Amino acid sequence: MTTLENYLDWLRDAHAMEEQAETMLKGMAGRLEHYPDLKMRIEQHISETKDQQRLVKSVIDRYDTSNSTFKDIAGKATAMGQAMGGMFASDEVVKGAISGYVFENLEIASYTSLIAAAKVVGDQEGERIFTQILEQEVAMAKWCLDHLPDVTQKFLARSEAPNTEAKK
């Protein structure tokens, strides 16, 4: 594969990754009842994620190529499976918060690589877009990490309380 072909393939991967992120985030936000701060931040990131999809698609479109429908569908199916699996875990909110942090770091690594690739192919607009997205992903990862102790402690307190649901 040429450098440009690799870059375009990674762009399609990024678009599929954002589709997967949206599905996962919506699934988690839709089930959260007792963790309003987490739900609010996830809903904010859903909005950012939709904008990120649009921005990545704008880079794909400039190269007159299409996003990979197969990758988008596979990403959504994976996210749906993860969401469905989490629904049955008694500690869903904690596992979801941990998974969210891990996924944000995957996105950080992906956009860091895309920025480097954009520099090599001379795509200054792509570099600008990926830097903007990277900043949002870093902020979300930091938020997840900073709030993980609180989510964990709230979950543990709720799980100890009689007649109280803790998982969501």
From TrEMBL:
<protein>
    <submittedName>
        <fullName>Ferritin-like domain-containing protein</fullName>
    </submittedName>
</protein>
<dbReference type="InterPro" id="IPR009078">
    <property type="entry name" value="Ferritin-like_SF"/>
</dbReference>
<dbReference type="Pfam" id="PF05974">
    <property type="entry name" value="DUF892"/>
</dbReference>
<dbReference type="InterPro" id="IPR012347">
    <property type="entry name" value="Ferritin-like"/>
</dbReference>
<dbReference type="InterPro" id="IPR010287">
    <property type="entry name" value="DUF892_YciF-like"/>
</dbReference>
